[in-house]
Amino acid sequence: MPDRIEKVSAFVIEIPRDVPYLGPLRDGEFVNRAGYIVRAGNRTLYPTKDRSVVLRIDTEKGLTGWGETYGIVAPEAVRAIVDDVLAPVLEGRDPAAPAVIHEDLYDLMRVRGFFGGFYGDALAAVDIALWDLLGKSLGVPVSTLLGGRRHGRIPAYVSGLPKATLDERVAFAREWQAKGFDGFKFAAVVADEGAEAEIAALREGLGPRARIMADLHWKYTAPEAIRLIRRLEPHGLAFAEAPCAPEDIEGTTLVARSVGVPVALGEELRTVFEWLPRLERRAFGIGQPEMGRTGITEFARIGALCHAYNVEVMPHATIGVGLFMAASLQASSAQQKLPCHEYQHSIFDPNLRLTKPTGTRHMACEAGAYVLPDGPGLGVEPSDEMFTHRVP
Questions:
Q1: CB–CB of 31/101 below 8 Å?
Q2: Which member of 69, 178, 274, 289 has the lowest number of beta carbons within 10 Å of its beta carbon?
Q3: Which among 333, 324, 292, 288 is positioned nearest to 306, based on CA atoms?
C-alpha cells in the first residue's frame, strides 16, 4: 500500500538580526511600524528581522518531510495559501511523485493568474518537502534523485559587505579572502561613494586575482546600466547582476548585448515559463535561480534549460533558516555548468544552529566552498532551537 499525506503545516520563523540586511541605515531611511525599511538606493522593502516560512508534511506511515520558502515580507500570506488552498488538496495523496504534484498544484490557480508571487513561494515550500520525503523513504539524498551528484564541494562567493564605510567594506572583504574565498559581490545601492569607487577600492585591496561582482538591484534603465557597467569593466568586473527592472526584458537584453561582461539574473523568477523568454532573447549569461522561490522541481528544470542554452548557473542565496539552502546545495550538486553558488555569510553560518544533519555530516561553507550534508533527503532537518523562533 502506498503511503499517504496526512497533514500539512506551515510555520513562520522570525530571527532578530543586529545589523539590517545590506548594512546600516542610510540618510532618509527609517524603520516603519511594521518593522520594514525602504532602501533609498532601490526603493525596495526590507525587514529588520529575518523571517521564513517552514513547511512540514507528515505521512500516515510516520515520515516527515521539511520545506521552506522565502518569507521576509508578509509571510502570513504564504501560510494562508498553504492552510486554505494547498493543504486540503494534498491530504490523502501519495507523496512519491513530487514533480507530478507540483504540476497539479500549479494548475489549481493558473487561470486566475496566480502562477507566481506568494502562490509560487508556497508551491516551492511544498515541493521541497515532497522531495525531502521521497529521499528519506528511499534512503538517498535529493541529489541522487536528480540524477547524481557531480560536485562534492561547491565553490562559493561572498555576498554582501555590510559595513558602514568603504574602507570598512574593503577590510571586511580582505578578512574573507584570508579565509580562502576569492569571489566577492558588492551591492551598488549601498555603495555610498558610487559603484566605480567601490570596485576600484575593492580591486586595490583584494588584488588582481579576486573575482568582484556588482549587484545593481534592478535600479537602472538600460542606457544607465550600460554606461555604469562599462565604467566598471576596466576594474575586472566578473558579472553585473540585475541591471534593469525585472519586467524590462528588452532593456536587460540590450544591456547584455552592449557590455563585455555577463549579465546575471533570475532570483525573482519562479518557473521555466518566466525563464524561457529571457533565455530566448539571450538577456543574460549567468542564471541565478533561488531555491526558496522555485522549489526543487522548477530549479532542476531551470538548470536543464540553462544548460540547453549554454548558460552557466550560479544559484542565488537569500534569507532563510537553512532548509531551502540545503535543497539548493543538493540540486546544485547535480548541475553540470555550476562555477559557484552565492554565500550569504551573515545568514548561512549564524543559522546553522537552526538545523541538524540527518546523516553524519552537516552542511558547511569553509575555505571558499560549500560542503554538502550526507544524509537522506535534504540532508538536514530543523533543530529544536529553530522552533524557539516560531511566531505564534
A1: no
A2: 178
A3: 288
Could you give the dihedral angle defined by the CA atoms of residues 41, 43, 47 and 50, in that order, rounded to the nearest 10 degrees? -70
CA-CA distance, 255 to 247, in Å (whole number)?
A: 14
Residue 57 bridge partners (DSSP): 8, 65
Instruction: Extract the C-alpha cell encoding 351.
Output: 543559522
Sign of CA dihedral 310, 314, 315, 316: negative
E strand spans, 288-363: 312-313, 341-343, 355-357
pTM of the predicted structure, to 2 decimals: 0.96
E strand segments, the chain: 5-16, 36-39, 44-47, 49-59, 64-70, 153-159, 183-187, 211-215, 237-241, 263-265, 286-287, 312-313, 341-343, 355-357, 364-366, 369-371, 380-382
**pLDDT tens per residue, the chain (392 residues)?**
789 999 999 999 999 988 887 788 888 999 999 999 999 888 889 899 999 999 999 999 999 999 999 999 999 999 999 999 999 999 999 999 999 999 999 999 999 999 899 999 999 999 999 999 999 999 999 999 999 999 989 999 999 999 989 999 999 999 999 999 999 999 998 898 999 999 999 999 999 999 999 999 999 999 999 999 999 999 999 999 999 999 999 999 999 999 999 999 999 999 999 999 999 999 999 999 999 999 999 999 999 999 999 999 999 999 999 999 999 999 999 999 899 999 999 999 999 999 999 999 999 999 999 999 999 999 999 999 999 999 98
Grid coordinates standing for 166?
568603504
DSSP 234: G
Nearest partner of 69 among 25, 117, 27, judged by Cα: 117
